[in-house]
């Protein structure tokens, strides 16, 4: 059994005898410890490269593209189902990799970050908001086109857009991320 599993088991055993206020405080403390440990883990060398981070940031658009393919295919056909599945799988894989490569910067609470990281996250969220508006505008155009020119399965397209929008903050952080190794090449 791992050390983390033992700690979690001991925490939950201990929580059975505490008051709700103490329980909330201990859970909050445990969550902060886990977040600090995850943020402190070094990123694997192959994942820390500038090109890989940029590629991951660009790949955040994959769920939307897969959703668009599924939306244009005949409903319940093999291409539609496979594209919808690819959208979900690509979302999950990219989300996990982006979280790892950015050190959970986009998801961490303010208390876990220093001033520079809070500022970087603020800039990334500002950039992600602009991309989000572009994605929503694209989906709005698709909805208008669906009624007039082409037949789309909008639910799959909207799901792909939602997946992409969810990835945008981490993708922008990954795109803007700078390491000391970047200067070396």
Cα separation of the termini: 41 Å
The largest sheet, given as strand count, sense and whether it forms a barrel, is: none
- What is the percentage of strand-forming residues? under 5%
Helix content: over 70%
Order of helices and strands, N to C? HHHHHHHHH
Report the total helices.
9
Low-confidence segments, ≥5 residues, pLDDT <50? none
CA radius of gyration: 20 Å
Number of domains: 2
Mean residue pLDDT = 83
**Total E-strand runs:** 0
The outline comes out as globular
Structural class: mainly alpha
Protein topology:
Layout: H1 3-15, H2 20-40, H3 45-48, H4 50-58, H5 62-72, H6 78-101, H7 115-148, H8 154-176, H9 180-184
Brief rundown of the structure:
The protein has 185 residues and is an all-alpha fold.
What does this 3D model show about the protein?
- With 185 residues, the protein is mainly alpha-helical.
- The protein folds into two domains: 1-41; 45-184, no CATH class.
- The protein has nine helices and no strands.
Key structural traits:
2 domains; mainly alpha; 9 helices; 185 residues; 0% strand
